[in-house]
Amino acid sequence: METESEISDSSSSNNSMIPPLPQNPIFTVKLSPIILHVRRCSKNIKKKKRTRPPLKKKKKSFSSSVKSIIGVSFKSAAQKHSTTVTRDGGVKKISSWVKSRLLGEGAYGSVYLATSKDDIYKTERAIKSADVLKAWSLMHEGKILRSLQSPFVIRCYGHEIAREGTGHQYSLILEYCSGQCLADLIEDNQGGIPEFDVKQFAIDVLSGLSYIHRRNIIHCDIKPDNLLLSPVDHRFRSNGFLTKIADFGLSMEKGSNEYGNGRGHVRGTTRYMAPELIGGGLVDFVYD
């Protein structure tokens, strides 16, 4: 039977036979190469979520937006005409319009056919001009026409003051009606105008008068010479014309300071005036 000392000796003798292990062992492992085919998939890629800061909503001021639109509109409208406006009260050195021929003359001015120098389409307009010192009637007419807008009333596009020779000319820019006036049509048709056409002319004139009377305007000079014919499509008018009321130089606004109580105003063409007005009667809508 072995003693405890013998067992320990035998174990010590056996340990002496085993070589010491290295302090830093290196293991070599040979593996067969394996190729992994990994298909790129959106699910396999973790996308980084970009967080954007919240946009600050700007409160738009309605009044400021309207002001900017009005400003742009005014500038664009101003550029459509000549830029030769001087600082002496808005008088132009050179007119923006080229007059081609004389259309007619009256007691308060001359009417020319003209086109704008800045209009590439060369739209024809009727330019009613007079010396600025004698243009009180044209200025009054322009003021009245700018407040009216009806297919049965001649249209006014504005006015111009320009130097011409040694003086200055005040001009109204008006709609041009190439179909002459009713007086010329009557003269050209000595045999008479068809009844149906007469009715159509009357309807147009009454429609125009009804419109201006609703706006407290009394024309005071309705006559064939002041009724202009504007050509229209025959599909809409059998006679091919639309009648428009023109020449508001003697017109009055009922209720204005000029109108007063409506008495003492003798104005118009004698041949077409109501007899009671010659004696200073009341000027009212029925006068037209």
Automatic annotation (TrEMBL):
It comes from the Eukaryota. GO terms for molecular function: ATP binding; protein serine/threonine kinase activity. Pfam families: Pkinase. PROSITE patterns: PROTEIN_KINASE_ATP, PROTEIN_KINASE_DOM, PROTEIN_KINASE_ST. Keywords: ATP-binding, Kinase, Nucleotide-binding, Serine/threonine-protein kinase, Transferase. Residues 97-288 form the Protein kinase domain. ATP binds at K128. Belongs to the protein kinase superfamily. PANTHER family: CCR4-NOT TRANSCRIPTIONAL COMPLEX SUBUNIT CAF120-RELATED, PROTEIN KINASE SUPERFAMILY PROTEIN. This is (thale cress) hypothetical protein. It comes from Arabidopsis thaliana. The lineage of its organism: Eukaryota, Viridiplantae, Streptophyta, Embryophyta, Tracheophyta.
